[in-house]
Predict the structure of Semaphorin-3F-like isoform X3.
Amino acid sequence: MHNAGAYRSNVLLLILALFCYVVLGNHRAAPRVRLSFKELMETRTARPFTFTFNTSDYRILLMDQDQDRMYLGAREFLMALDLQNINKEPLIIHWPASSSRQNECRMAGKGRHGECYNYVRLIQPLNRTHLYTCGTGAFHPICALINRGWRSEEYLFRMVPGTQEAGKGKCPYDPRQDSTAALVNGNLYSGVQVDFMGTDAAVFRTMGNRPAIRTEQHDSRWLNEPVFLHAHMIPDSSDRNDDKLYFLFREKALEGVNGPAVLSRIGRVCLNDNGGLRSLVNKWTTFLKARLVCSVIGQDGVETFFDELRDVFIQPTQDEKNPLIYAVFSTLGSVFKASAVCVYSMADVRTVFNGPFAHKEGHNYQWVSYLGKIPYPRPGACPGGTFTPGIRSTKEFSDELVNFIRTHPLMYNAVYPVQRRPLVVRTGVDYKFTSIAVDLVDAVDGRYEVLFLGTDHGTVQKVIVLPKDQSELEELTLEEVEVFRVPAPVKSLRISSKRQQLYVSSATGVTQMTLHRCPIYGQACADCCLARDPYCAWDGESCSRYTLASKRRSRRQDIKHGDPLRQCRGYNAKVEKHLQETVQYGVEGTSVFLECQPRSPQAAVKWLIQREGSSHRKVIGQEKALVKTGHGILLRTVLKNDTGLYHCVATENRFKHTVARIRLQVLDREQVDSVTTDPVSLTEDQVNRQGLARGTQPSTQDILHTFEQPEIEVINQYCRNFWQQLSRPKRTNEHASALQASSDEI
């Protein structure tokens, strides 16, 4: 025992040096609670979809709150699941591509990545009893009607015979291509790749009583290799003739090598656009687009852009004309991973679309603001609307107007987020955000927006953002949970505020979980208050779900300030009184690790020692502590007089409380030696360790076995500090001297 302990003290610096060459992850916004899939299941607040059949690529395509149903598309299957319990009598339709279509697909050179199946990509409500659905059909898009009945109690979910039709312009050929669609007033609006080769992308309108029209074909000024993500109808005024379809996408930038490779866009068309009379026949005559910017400005004034739009969530407000647009962005490439969430107002969007048009001119053919004459009515205005009451159809638009919009579909100004800054930013992390859902939650001190963010690591983060002061926001990651048994990137997130449930899908499965897990924050009032989760409040006995109907006298909640000193008077002393102390042993002359993990990564930890026979507590100084981490403290060589009671005190938001009490007993070295040097009693592991202590050449595996997990964490922390100091060239010599001094002391 002594030999192993002495060995640790002698070679600790060597191990630290070895580990410093391991690439360590950068700082991330640490969640207050992190749950593995197993731990999530133990909370009994989540339910994975357990019906197994030969399929993959689950996507939540439609939420029907009226029938309490969620509709999923997958490879060769459609599913209707109960929102309360996704495993309760699921209704399933098997919809495979025909054998002949699959053979044709393979003969065309496809199928190496499993494309020659029917992947369901579109489910839209056609009327109260029927759904319209489309699939890739083994590179031959196909659509059909589904009868879902009047009420969910009918358990009706079947494909209507004889309704299958071609899906070109409604659904992509290739299942790997993203698309979007919205069925409005019987007309289907789709952002989709139209051809087999995936070279012709368009915003299409099909079905209904209006003519089929699309964007201009093979014109990079309109669309340049776009990836469509979302489409939503938003009225512009009280006049329904002004209704527009807004669609969000990313596309290859026209700027080429002088700018970003990809840009995010928001575009729009009028719902009553019927195309031009002589020019742009069967093409949109109201199509406009603008850049969507999500960026941060550094201390040096340089603006860093998140250019790759990943997902969109439209949050309704009391005014249907002005919903909020939440958008998830990421950086391009895989070397530097970063993500951000930006929020946009429709007022800012409309200001840009009512602003100057972009125009290319000059010897460098650069984008400038168009200063020439703009036709009347203004390009992009809808016929018969507020500003064009005398025009009944787009076919009455002048040739001048139609030609202008053909050559000037891009707005000069970009749409910036609210307050011109992101709501959430993640930099230097090993994951990217892939999806988003937002819930509005009523708390004691107001209404809060809770963001649920899916990642490409198969986790979901719950985040709130609070105003810290007039110019700064405070971002709090309440929890991060693994939602799938086998980790896979989150493809879609849907939320049901009515059911208080979140639904998550990936290529491998679907999971349903509640929006809150209040007891995981802790059993004390202070833990519940410091968590600042709008869903949770202290009810006098535990941290539980907060509702507006809760008794006002017993509930304790403070989202804005998270102040347990004010909210939890009378409860804090009880927790300190019932805190149990643990006993730990150390050997004289060796290092000792005392473990203490506060519930919050934002808490500052201080260690105090209360020596034997004394009531006074003293702060442990740097001369005694080798390394302090979020997992505990590593004490350098302990002596007999280090015996005592060690207090781990955490401070968060001005609230101090004792997290752990550890009574350290330092054993006499000679007594330990006399017990542990008997060769007969040595285990194989101890023999190996003594061999290492005698100078035998150690292997990396042998070295690792001599350290426990908390000590490994200490080593990681030391390495972070090591590299931070090493990155400062002027202090290299100072750091080398300090490292040598540490070596001498050890």
